[in-house]
Amino acid sequence: MLDEDAFRQSSLCVVGNLNRDVKAAPLRARKDLFQDGETSVPFVIETIGGGGANSAFAAAALGARVSFFGKVGADGLGDRLERTMARHAISPHLARDKARESGTSIALAFENGHRHFISCLPASRALTFADLDLQAMMPHQHLLRADIWFSEAMLKGGNQQLFQAARRAGVDVSIDLNWDPHWGHAPAGEIRARKRSVRAALPWVNLVHGNVRELTEFAEAPALETALKRLLKWGAEAVVVHLGKRGAGYYHQGVLVEQPPPKVNSRVNTTGTGDVLSVCMMLLHRCEQASVRERLCLANSVVAEFMEGKRRFIPLLED
């Protein structure tokens, strides 16, 4: 019987962004927000930010052994970020950049469920393959490359080097595709080149993670089914699909297994559910005695409890 003991028997190393998120209470989307003035809210808080960091904290909260690899500035904010990780049972392996500051994002949430991030992430964008301590990574079962679009050096060969090293050491590899900030804004040739750089690394990837919109955009596909076929054709082993209200899916060897979500009585957390789902599936990846449907079911139950506020994965930033 698959249960949460499987999380505690697993381990994960994460390569991605680590920054400060400044979050305000949800705002009503109004035209006057674009005019001079001031809007009062019930709270403004500082939390850990970055897709990679959020995934690391979720895995640690589930009981897995977790290490994080990223880049921060040689500044006080970098110290605070490192302390927060260490105090939540995550082993931080952070390169310090004397020329660039640690990152900050202003996370705007609206009452209609929409979000907008205003980000300045100079240290994270400067991450290179040489910044990573490969020896510290290899004792883990699984590697997650999060925030894959943010570092030009990693896009231009660094990710491929990292994945090859991990697979040679027997470490499984996941990538979270998420949404490239360049899509829809940069010149078409630049967007194609960025996509090609990620596709070139897919032969060394066990699990690709993303929602329907992200997967179809990346694969330039008219529908999810086509996107999934293309991802496996390009070399990926399987795809974990975030299906929103439909739950979760797992595509492997031409078959998509879908698992509907359990009933959620109240929605306290509406963002970050995809990250939590993906982390669960990474930690359960080697549970070959359990069926894919059993793994999806357990992952969905954790996501539901997170949505209801019964689990807290993203901590406040330490002083």
Helix content bin: 25-40%
- Could you give me the name of the CATH homologous superfamily? Ribokinase
In CATH's first tier, which class applies? Answer: Alpha Beta
Mean pLDDT: 96
Number of β-strand runs: 13
Strand content: 15-25%
CATH architecture: 3-Layer(aba) Sandwich
Quaternary assembly: single chain
Largest sheet: 9 strands, mixed
Can you give a write-up of this model?
With 319 residues, this protein is an alpha/beta fold. The protein has one domain: 3-Layer(aba) Sandwich (UDP-N-acetylmuramoyl-L-alanine:D-glutamate ligase), CATH 3.40.1190.20. It contains 11 helices and 13 strands. The strands form 2 sheets. It has a 9-stranded mixed beta sheet with strand order 5-4-1-8-9-10-11-12-13, sandwiched between helices. The longest helix is centred in the middle third of the chain and has 17 residues, at 152-168. The termini are far apart. The model has no long low-confidence stretch (mean pLDDT 96).
